[in-house]
């Protein structure tokens, strides 16, 4: 970030802020993306009283099962390809303990950190965190610098290299922009679960409000051992893993 001085950063922010109005006159796309409404039950609403997250039980995540990946691709209009230029918002990781021979399979996606490094390095505030903990990319502001891809310790961000067709209108994407798992924010704001959690046949993905002491996910986090990947970085991810 040393090569981008403060005056240039201010210029970029001001210019791209104006671009939001120019691109979508009369539409509050920026406000909706940032959840700038008071009522968290309304579409686009986000409240800091809520912290959306997931608890993934790796003992129930079966090797070779890609239901969550398939559902994510279908819901968000991803090609499902595995080339370096293909966007992949969830990838299955196969782990093996060489000493015991124990094998594990787990989905890895954006961890929706409380302190996201992708947000810290973004020169245009395109990468941002909603009040409810969901980390997103504002496509109007993204200039394709890819600093966020380099900053993410989970390798969870992708870059759109090619023109896109037949997109889901609820999931705006665009060539030349960074992107990652959104926790299916367009579904959450309608009171639905993320597509991956809904599609998992083995119920390995538990989604909910980590701040609600009475929620199923909060209760389970209190009762079972779980970890955050790279907890040593103190990013406080909203995604936790059981059985690792």
Describe this structure in words.
- The protein is an alpha+beta fold.
- It has a single domain, classed as Alpha-Beta Plaits, CATH 3.30.70.20.
- Helix content is 25%, strand content 16%.
- It is built from 8 helices and 10 strands.
- The chain has a 4-stranded mixed β-sheet.
- A hairpin with a 6-residue loop joins strand 2 (91-96) and strand 3.
- The longest helix is centred in the first third of the chain and has 18 residues, at 6-23.
- The chain starts with 5 loop residues before the first helix and ends with a strand.
- The model is unreliable at 11-32 and 36-44 (pLDDT under 50).
What are the salient characteristics of this protein?
two-stranded antiparallel sheet; 244 residues; 10 strands; four-stranded mixed β-sheet; alpha+beta
Beta-strand percentage?
Answer: 15-25%
Helix-and-strand structural type: alpha+beta
| Low-pLDDT ranges | 11-32, 36-44
Strand order of the largest sheet: 8-1-10-9
Cα gyration radius (Å): 18 Å
Write the layout of secondary structure elements.
Elements: H1 6-23, H2 29-33, E1 52-57, H3 67-76, E2 91-96, E3 103-108, H4 117-121, E4 127-129, E5 135-137, H5 147-151, E6 158-159, E7 178-179, H6 185-188, H7 195-199, E8 205-209, H8 216-223, E9 226-227, E10 239-242
Parallel strand pairs: 1-10
Antiparallel strand pairs: 1-8, 2-3, 4-5, 6-7, 9-10
